[in-house]
Amino acid sequence: MAVDPRFFASAGPLRLGDLLAAAGGRCEGDPERRFTGVAPLQAAGPDEVSFLDNRKYLPELAETRAGAVVLQPDLAGQVPTGTLAIAAPAPYLGFARIAALFHPAPGPVPGIHPTAVIAPDATVGEGCEIGPYVVIGAGARIGQDCILYPHAVVGPGVELGDGCRLHPHSSISHAVAGRGVVLHPGARIGQEGFGFAPTPEGRFETMPQLGRVILGDFAEIGANSCVDRGSQGDTVIGPGSRLDNLVQIGHNVRTGRGCIIVGQAGIAGSTVLEDFVQVAAQAGVAGHLRVGAGARIGAQAGVMNDVPGKSDVIGSPAMPVRDFWRAVAKFRKSGGKNEGKAG
Q: How far apart are CA 134 and CA 116, in angstroms?
């Protein structure tokens, strides 16, 4: 099915030469040939571009009617007659850049909607789009070319760098955000962390949460994800890091550059993720731990100890991947039953 123009405006048709420049690819076709858009292998037509980044889809490649396919150089000879091969070292990345050429993110439409509520001492940079019912608190500073969609809330004193996007019903308080930060719908940044002290009578008294959230340049926070502010220091999401939907980040967590945290994962307070850590879906990381640079945590893992850099762990409690699969194999060999008897 073609991209629905009601939701995604197209910049096409575009020249093959421009697509090659974006993808960093090579092709023997006419650089002046025009294409109208992108589509999956099984749905693309002669005027559309598709991609292949997994060999298990080679049968779909053989049947495709796409005008051009972005793929690895060693697969270029397997495209069907009439389809151009765009050979790129990173096909998925190349295709993403081509798709972004056809369907660029909409830029701001400068202006402030009359229903927006903006504190008199707040600063809104040039070229910003401030949508209906947006609230901007006292002393807040909004950089240039930002988009604040309907019902977004920016708390007092918050700073947003240039080019930020706050989608509907997102909120940010007690925070400083860099350039190009994106908050998807319903994201919550800077709320009070989960900190309390029990009393002798069995009640709980809230520990004041006096820190901030620091969002690095081009960090993205998924829909309905929460990033608590620090208790005494700061919670930090490093530059370029991405949180999927429904992620929980506890107070004083610090991530490095380019970390990926997938849906329904949770990182408990004061844990440090070094650069380029990946945390898969529904994984949980206990507090006050350190996960080394480049480590990968598998889906539904329960991390209770530090994780060395460039290691892969899975299971609960989490263990190195090889140990986990050895344990699984032993369990299966035993029939998956507890051979002991209840005493």
A: 5
In the chain, where the domains are located? 14-102, 170-324
Exactly one of 103, 151, 184, 251 is catalytic; name it. 251
Phi, psi of 324, deg, nearest 5: -60, -50
| Distance in Å from the first CA to the final CA of the chain | 63
Q: What is the 3-state secondary structure (H, E, C) of 239-303?
A: CCCEECCCCEECCCCEECCCCEECCCCEECCCCEECCCCEECCCCEECCCCEECCCCEECCCCEE
Please check the confidence at residue 210 and state whether its pLDDT lies above 90: yes
Structure tokens at 45: 């037509």
One-letter amino acid for residue 285 of the chain: V
Task: Respond yes or no: is residue 251 known to be catalytic.
Answer: yes
Architecture of the domain whose range is 170-324: 3 Solenoid (2.160)
Geometric angle at alpha carbon 342, from 336 and 338, rounded to 5°: 10
* Three-class secondary structure of residue 60 per DSSP: helix
pLDDT at 162 over 80: yes
| Cis peptide bond N-terminal to 13, omega within 30 | yes
Specify which residues 220 forms β-bridges with. 182, 242
Angle at 235 between CA 230 and CA 236, to 5 degrees: 165
**Phi, psi dihedrals of residue 77, rounded to the nearest 5°:** -75, -5
User: Do the domains 14-102 and 170-324 sit in the same CATH topology, yes or no?
Assistant: no
pLDDT tens figures, 40-49: 999 999 999 9
Domain 14-102: CATH superfamily is: MurE/MurF, N-terminal domain (3.40.1390.10)
pLDDT 10s digits, 218-249:
999 999 999 999 999 999 999 999 999 999 99
Residue for token pair 């090659």: 20
Question: 196-198 and 204-206: which strand pairing?
Answer: antiparallel
For residue 333, report the phi and psi dihedrals to the nearest 5 degrees.
-65, -35
Looking at every residue in the chain, the average pLDDT score rounds to 95
Residue 16 has pLDDT above 80, yes or no: yes
Longest dimension (CA), the chain: 80
**Residues contacting residue 123 through CB under 8 Å, at least 6 positions apart:** 140, 141, 142
